[in-house]
């Protein structure tokens, strides 16, 4: 196909499902994982982004996290360039200081006879769960209605050993959602063999969930195969779900993962994976790895097996993004029917958001 000179269409210009899904955003009225809890120390501020919206995320000296719109009301500098002052954030330029409700509370320079400016920047609800920091970038009145997914295996005294990983890939979030649930790409992982001979046995869309199942051989790689305890786990099938805007998998109720995407912009996505296990065995034996040892085993397995495996997906989706930008008008050849459902769901949720936004917009005022 000839390389196109123009750029891919926007959501409103898109002419087919692929162009729509590759330009869709994610509905902001959900909780999104944005950073690890341990990555932000008291007194530290970082910039995080949700679909081109920049947010200053900081931890006050009291240990509490806060998220504010990342701009100073004065001259619009990013507040993430500034400093945490107690529980407030101070802009680096003229030193204006905002409290955790975004209200300007200090202006350390002459006011030239003016009144203290009554200005405010926006704030976002923040929570911490599963070692991740979550932000609610949308309509804050929905923050209590919408929940962070419940993962009972990752909480409490008997919680399973977990491998957290994250990647920032130069790819649209929909490519990552397609990738993690579409097992037709076993060829890419021929070295690690996380799933082979996958046959889609079920796929359906119920509300905002697409559930699917494969009959497949799970974890048959040379090294991973040694650890998978086939006497305790059914490794012949896997259930998966695109539980908008999140994704998970479950192998025999013993090997599970969640995938949380953070759509940064049209071509950048940070993805947080939580893999957790309850049935791995000591190689060449039938002895289950005890829970206390599991943490160490996973620490070793992560850089050897899990990270390299997912890095292959990263290379593929980044190449897919590049391919799409060059050939967005190429004919669509998509064989896996579950992928059609993922894409439809992403498009529908984005349309829902755009429609809501349109209804909320105040009537345009004439500027002439
Ligand atoms: S730009 Fe922030 S204080 Fe002036
Ligand atoms: Fe993969």
UniProtKB/TrEMBL annotation:
Record-annotated Rieske domain positions = 31-135
The record's keywords, sorted A to Z, are: 2Fe-2S, Dioxygenase, Iron, Iron-sulfur, Metal-binding, Oxidoreductase
The Gene Ontology terms for molecular function here are:
2 iron, 2 sulfur cluster binding; dioxygenase activity; metal ion binding; monooxygenase activity; oxidoreductase activity, acting on paired donors, with incorporation or reduction of molecular oxygen
Q: Does the keyword Cell membrane apply?
A: no
Task: Kindly indicate whether the keyword Secreted belongs to this entry.
Answer: no
Q: Per its UniProt entry, which superkingdom is the organism in?
A: Bacteria
Alphabetized PANTHER family for the sequence: 3-CHLOROBENZOATE-3,4-DIOXYGENASE, IRON-SULFUR DOMAIN CONTAINING PROTEIN
Descriptive protein name:
Aromatic ring-hydroxylating dioxygenase subunit alpha
Q: Which organism is it from?
A: Amazonocrinis nigriterrae CENA67
């Amino acid at each position: 196909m000839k390389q196109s000179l123009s750029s891919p269409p926007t959501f409103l210009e898109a002419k087919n499902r692929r162009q729509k899904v590759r330009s869709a955003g994610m509905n902001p009225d959900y909780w999104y994982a944005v950073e690890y809890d341990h990555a932000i120390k008291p007194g530290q501020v970082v910039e995080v982004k949700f679909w081109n919206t920049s947010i200053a995320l900081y931890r006050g000296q009291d240990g509490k996290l806060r998220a504010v719109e990342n701009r100073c009301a004065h001259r619009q500098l990013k507040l993430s360039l500034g400093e945490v002052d107690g529980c407030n954030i101070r802009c680096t330029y003229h030193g204006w200081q905002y409290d955790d409700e975004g209200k300007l509370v200090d202006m350390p320079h002459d006011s030239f006879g003016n009144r203290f400016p009554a200005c405010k920047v926006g704030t976002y609800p923040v929570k911490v769960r599963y070692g991740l920091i979550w932000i609610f970038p949308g309509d804050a009145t929905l923050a209590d209605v919408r929940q962070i997914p419940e993962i009972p295996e990752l909480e409490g005294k008997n919680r399973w050993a977990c491998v957290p990983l994250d990647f920032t890939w130069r790819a649209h979030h929909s490519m990552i959602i397609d990738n993690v649930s579409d097992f037709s790409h076993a060829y890419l992982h021929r070295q690690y063999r996380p799933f082979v001979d996958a046959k889609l046995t079920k796929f359906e869309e119920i509300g905002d969930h697409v559930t699917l199942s494969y009959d497949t051989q799970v974890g048959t790689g040379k090294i991973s195969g040694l650890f998978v305890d086939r006497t305790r786990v059914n490794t012949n099938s896997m259930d998966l779900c695109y539980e908008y805007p999140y994704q998970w998998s479950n192998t025999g109720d013993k090997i599970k993962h969640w995938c949380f995407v953070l759509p940064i912009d049209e071509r950048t996505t940070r993805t947080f994976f939580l893999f957790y296990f309850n049935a791995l065995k000591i190689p060449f034996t039938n002895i289950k790895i005890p829970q206390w040892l599991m943490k160490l085993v996973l620490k070793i397995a992560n850089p050897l097996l899990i990270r390299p495996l997912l890095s292959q997906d990263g290379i593929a989706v980044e190449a897919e993004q590049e391919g799409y930008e060059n050939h967005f008008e190429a004919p669509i050849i998509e064989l896996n029917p579950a992928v059609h459902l993922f894409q439809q769901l992403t498009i529908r949720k984005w349309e829902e958001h755009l429609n809501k936004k349109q209804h909320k917009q105040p009537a345009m005022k004439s500027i002439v």
